Amino acid sequence: MDLAFTKEEQAFREEVRSFFRDNVPPDTRRKLVEGRHLSKDEMVTWWRILNKKGWGVSHWPTQYGGTGWTSVQHYIFNEELQSYPAPQPLAFGVSMVGPVIYTFGNEEQKKKYLPRIANVDDWWCQGFSEPGSGSDLASLKTKAERKGDKWIINGQKTWTTLAQHADMIFCLCRTDASAKKQMGISFIVFSMKSKGVTVRPIQTIDGGVEVNEVFFDDVEVPYENLIGEENKGWDYAKFLLGNERTGIARVGVSKERLRRIRDLAGKVESGGKPIIQDAAFREKLAACEIELKALELTQLRVVADEGKHGKGKPNPASSVLKIKGSEIQQTTTELLMEVIGPFAAPYDVHGDDGSNEAMDWTAQIAPSYFNNRKVSIYGGSNEIQRNIIAKAVLGL
Amino acid sequence: MDFDLNEEQRLLKDSIDGLLTDSYDFESRKKYMKEKGGWSKAVWGKLAEQGLLGLPFAEADGGFGGGGVETMIVMEALGKALVLEPYLATVVIGGGFLRHAGSDAQKAAHVPGIIDGSKTLAFAQLEKNSRYDLFDVATTAKKKGDGWIIDGEKFVVLNGENADTLVVTARTKGDRRDKTGIGVFLVPASAKGVTKKSYPTQDGLHAADITFTGVEVGSDAAIGNPDDSLALIERVVDEARVALCAEAVGLMDESLKTTVEYIKTRKQFGVAIGSFQSLQHRASDMFVAAEQARSMSMFATMAGDFEDARERSNAIAAAKAQIGKSLKFVGQQAIQLHGGIGMTMEAKIGHYFKRLTMIENSFGDTDYHQRRVADGGGLI
């Protein structure tokens, strides 16, 4: 057992850190620190900087543009990226549909889509959830019917994150209504600009518009846009969801936020002195830091295990990451609320596109608290995660 | 970065797990409890035979030169089997003082007896009002000739009844809560003026309240600097905390395993109660708590080698706080999921819960250590 990173790993951390320092646009960083949403341009600009450096799709196989890093290097990269902070690569392209295409797609599809995903020439969104199919995803009803060399798609998706920016969607569609529910689903990709696609924004409790409803009304899609085999979509979806195991803890994000809390708590007064001097607050902060340290170690155990034994069999500890990671993220937003106290109330009517410079630093703290309630719901709710532990780990 | 055990460590783990599987089922434990002092001399002899009592001592002192990871392996196994024998008091704490600060003569006098199993030690530190502050010492050691005269009262001294030698913290200078002027003394349990009141503890171990009345010890009794040994005490107690973290991980593992087995077999409403989602989720949360504890136990073990003393004690405080939270949840829910049977002395789960609970109240509880982390400037 050894906790230390090697000299090479430490040098790598330095390299990553200094690249972020020199290349992340300052305004982008500031917005992330303040919990603001970024514009499409801001995100794409950064991702192209990252891709130019060769780090846009770091975990892909090298033949498709990946870096060939060790699992520890990936961990370091992610941690530095999250805690700098810089925008994370667009998960829908880089972590979700990309791996499905290079694993199950044909050569033509790989050539057509992968480079465009890496450079975010196409912005991808995810068509999984439906109004009646949340945790019970396999009950989905959106239908794709084969007509000659085309699919005709009808139905509705929801919670489609940033669909307002999207050029492409990867979609789970029912292609065999007679099969058992997991068996009749196919994985189909198509343009969001297709005729019959309608995007309707959903405003969330933080006031922002991150998610959307997407309607399909006789959308015509070329047959060759099917990825892999017909009716095998469920397998690809499971592969996709199991692909990102260690990033989900978002340890770096929480670290950055805890640093901000400590910083603000040294400035904001309560009882005539900075809140950080209040013993009860300080202990609450320490409690959160301890939980995060434990999670970081749990994540390192998973990372070290993957590095040694490959990604084949997931370490049982990996199921801890989503539950604890989301709980801690939520706690950090609660602590921020506690720090700003009554100044949580003012509502920022300008939103993210307003004149940021003039806005008070407290403006996004309450929205960020509201927004972060999502992290224990998405990506398989924490209740679903508990089902998984009970079944897969405890054998219940 | 590596969280795996090396080949030798794996062998060590196999050997102690094997020994305890053979000699420490729950029924045998009940018999050991009834022996004099409340633990088994025969099992202690087996631990000595396998070299486990000499594990952390330097080879030059007749030991095996094991480090923190080796102690973690042993303590986890002892926890898993709910072992009564005084490994913590004798090897980890008593041995810790000798390893870190014992003179050659002191080591020669005490270490061989520890290693061969013929002698055990006890740590007489807690006082009526000291609670978790190691520097809060009212017991005095007054200079007399080359030696000292010790006067004071110590409480809940684990293995105090059986120990051959007591390791006593006493003040040579200053006032009760001064951080200097504290020494550590080796006192024979048979010395004149030592009186003991022994009793079983809540978790089935044995302890004693010990009064020192004009106890005379020689010049060779002080370990380290008799006027300034707080740093030494903190170092050894930190190692004891790390050991308790590992023991607690073993206890939690076994508690979770026992609970999951129980809810798989216990039937109500015609089905195993483990098929109910509310119980499944509780068990999953127990698993999460136990894994977080395991991570911090490993962290604390490796932190034992940190060069920076502040960083080291901060890390260990964080670990003890996390383990405290986890053990309370795992222990309480293990009883809850067992239902009525969990309330009985007959079932083993209650005994695990009791040991876990006593660990929380040993050498600083969750609040105490959380405060240490908070006052130390945090962890991030």
Automatic annotation (TrEMBL), chain A:
<dbReference type="InterPro" id="IPR013786">
    <property type="entry name" value="AcylCoA_DH/ox_N"/>
</dbReference>
<dbReference type="Pfam" id="PF02770">
    <property type="entry name" value="Acyl-CoA_dh_M"/>
</dbReference>
<keyword id="KW-0285">Flavoprotein</keyword>
<dbReference type="Pfam" id="PF00441">
    <property type="entry name" value="Acyl-CoA_dh_1"/>
</dbReference>
<keyword id="KW-0560">Oxidoreductase</keyword>
<dbReference type="GO" id="GO:0050660">
    <property type="term" value="F:flavin adenine dinucleotide binding"/>
</dbReference>
<feature type="domain" description="Acyl-CoA dehydrogenase/oxidase N-terminal">
    <location>
        <begin position="6"/>
        <end position="119"/>
    </location>
</feature>
<dbReference type="InterPro" id="IPR009100">
    <property type="entry name" value="AcylCoA_DH/oxidase_NM_dom_sf"/>
</dbReference>
<comment type="similarity">
    <text>Belongs to the acyl-CoA dehydrogenase family.</text>
</comment>
<dbReference type="InterPro" id="IPR046373">
    <property type="entry name" value="Acyl-CoA_Oxase/DH_mid-dom_sf"/>
</dbReference>
<dbReference type="InterPro" id="IPR006091">
    <property type="entry name" value="Acyl-CoA_Oxase/DH_mid-dom"/>
</dbReference>
<dbReference type="InterPro" id="IPR052161">
    <property type="entry name" value="Mycobact_Acyl-CoA_DH"/>
</dbReference>
<dbReference type="InterPro" id="IPR017617">
    <property type="entry name" value="Pimeloyl_CoA_dehydrogenase_lsu"/>
</dbReference>
<protein>
    <submittedName>
        <fullName>Pimeloyl-CoA dehydrogenase large subunit</fullName>
    </submittedName>
</protein>
<dbReference type="InterPro" id="IPR036250">
    <property type="entry name" value="AcylCo_DH-like_C"/>
</dbReference>
<dbReference type="GO" id="GO:0016627">
    <property type="term" value="F:oxidoreductase activity, acting on the CH-CH group of donors"/>
</dbReference>
<keyword id="KW-0274">FAD</keyword>
<dbReference type="InterPro" id="IPR037069">
    <property type="entry name" value="AcylCoA_DH/ox_N_sf"/>
</dbReference>
<feature type="domain" description="Acyl-CoA oxidase/dehydrogenase middle">
    <location>
        <begin position="125"/>
        <end position="219"/>
    </location>
</feature>
<dbReference type="GO" id="GO:0005886">
    <property type="term" value="C:plasma membrane"/>
</dbReference>
<dbReference type="Pfam" id="PF02771">
    <property type="entry name" value="Acyl-CoA_dh_N"/>
</dbReference>
<feature type="domain" description="Acyl-CoA dehydrogenase/oxidase C-terminal">
    <location>
        <begin position="231"/>
        <end position="394"/>
    </location>
</feature>
Automatic annotation (TrEMBL), chain B:
<dbReference type="InterPro" id="IPR009075">
    <property type="entry name" value="AcylCo_DH/oxidase_C"/>
</dbReference>
<dbReference type="GO" id="GO:0050660">
    <property type="term" value="F:flavin adenine dinucleotide binding"/>
</dbReference>
<keyword id="KW-0274">FAD</keyword>
<dbReference type="InterPro" id="IPR006091">
    <property type="entry name" value="Acyl-CoA_Oxase/DH_mid-dom"/>
</dbReference>
<feature type="domain" description="Acyl-CoA oxidase/dehydrogenase middle">
    <location>
        <begin position="123"/>
        <end position="209"/>
    </location>
</feature>
<dbReference type="Pfam" id="PF02771">
    <property type="entry name" value="Acyl-CoA_dh_N"/>
</dbReference>
<protein>
    <submittedName>
        <fullName>Pimeloyl-CoA dehydrogenase small subunit</fullName>
    </submittedName>
</protein>
<dbReference type="InterPro" id="IPR046373">
    <property type="entry name" value="Acyl-CoA_Oxase/DH_mid-dom_sf"/>
</dbReference>
<feature type="domain" description="Acyl-CoA dehydrogenase/oxidase N-terminal">
    <location>
        <begin position="6"/>
        <end position="117"/>
    </location>
</feature>
<dbReference type="GO" id="GO:0003995">
    <property type="term" value="F:acyl-CoA dehydrogenase activity"/>
</dbReference>
<dbReference type="Pfam" id="PF00441">
    <property type="entry name" value="Acyl-CoA_dh_1"/>
</dbReference>
<keyword id="KW-0560">Oxidoreductase</keyword>
<feature type="domain" description="Acyl-CoA dehydrogenase/oxidase C-terminal">
    <location>
        <begin position="233"/>
        <end position="375"/>
    </location>
</feature>
<dbReference type="Pfam" id="PF02770">
    <property type="entry name" value="Acyl-CoA_dh_M"/>
</dbReference>
<dbReference type="InterPro" id="IPR036250">
    <property type="entry name" value="AcylCo_DH-like_C"/>
</dbReference>
<dbReference type="InterPro" id="IPR017616">
    <property type="entry name" value="Pimeloyl_CoA_dehydrogenase_ssu"/>
</dbReference>
<dbReference type="InterPro" id="IPR013786">
    <property type="entry name" value="AcylCoA_DH/ox_N"/>
</dbReference>
<dbReference type="InterPro" id="IPR037069">
    <property type="entry name" value="AcylCoA_DH/ox_N_sf"/>
</dbReference>
<keyword id="KW-0285">Flavoprotein</keyword>
<comment type="similarity">
    <text>Belongs to the acyl-CoA dehydrogenase family.</text>
</comment>
<dbReference type="InterPro" id="IPR009100">
    <property type="entry name" value="AcylCoA_DH/oxidase_NM_dom_sf"/>
</dbReference>
